[in-house]
Amino acid sequence: MDRADFDNNVAEGRWLAAWEIVAAGTSALIAEWCVYALAGGGALALMFPVLTAVVFMLVSHRARGETLRDVGWRLDNFTEAARLLAPVMLAVTAALVAAGWYNSTLDFRRWEGGQSILGSPVLSLLWGPLQQYALQGFINRRAQIVFGKGSASVLLTALLFALFHLPNPWLMLATFAGGLLWSWVYQRAPNLLAVGISHGLMTWVLISSVPPAALHNLRVGYKFFG
Amino acid sequence: MSDAASREQTDTETDAGGHGLRVPFSEDDSSSAHDSSHAHANSSARRATAARKTLVAAITIKLALDLLFVCALAVYTQAVSLRADFEGALEYADGRAARGWVRDSGGSTSDSVELQLYVDGRFAAAGRSASRHAPGAATDGRLGFELSFGPLPPGEHEARVYAVSASRGGTRRTLRQLGGPLRFVVQ
Fold it and tell me: pTM to 2 decimals?
């Protein structure tokens, strides 16, 4: 393979990675903007974008030869990832809890209607890693193929994460900030459990500290207006 | 990179031009191709080509399915929620009531049609058409209606009447305008 062929292959690989991000992202946008608007709250219609996205990501991982370990389903670097996450998480948690306490809006049972104080963390521990798998294990990795490791791919991943929370302004801001942190950490220690648990816990703290009206009950997409 | 070395690596797979990124288009493929035998290089190139073809196909199929899904959803919504089976017209209106007719040609089993009246863009009244089983009902399916509302101030007004269509077990209700708007003057 000569240099020109190699350059062409790399360029083609970058274009393919960019299109992979688009193809995965359309599922999120369809779920948020089309399914609820056209089919109501039916979970059956929601299955289509979810399933096609999951199948597409698995096919892509296989084509690129990515293993579970590559994607970040591993434990060996959990401590390193946690060490990178902890200072920021502690600082943000302290600020949010203090603000919530000062404004008398602190309620750790608020999520899921306060049914169970254990229910929220458990739910968040499932939901966080799943979202982070799509965001970091797929989008961040493709963004690194397009732009390389560093600020450009971190910024793109965070921007897309915020975009998926349109048009909720404060949630977009929070997800952009969270996206920057998790993408930065993932590029240094790719561990989906660590960033996923962090995602779940920070969501719980955010919901517990900020009044639901300010976050518009975490509604995004067309549902934001409903 | 050996398996042992790979297991020890806790860093991410770096950028596209670096080592370790399991992308069939990276420099890894090129360098390994240079270092290895010609047969191995050919095999590696074939794998990369196959991977590229798989990805192109996957992206194309995924986006095509997304497009088809959105189109199907739109058609389904149009057919179920926004059905165009209502005909009718608003024939008369004054400062206190509006009259007209409606026909449901969609084979609905409902006895009458639910209606909403808007005057000057604001909700004015709701009601139902005459029953299709009422004595003297027209044989062509036309059902008369009369909707009363509060007195309007003098001047020109505009009235629009809508048939209410309930779908998905009544969880979604959409309005379909009957005929055009009717302008009238209250003395």
Answer: 0.77
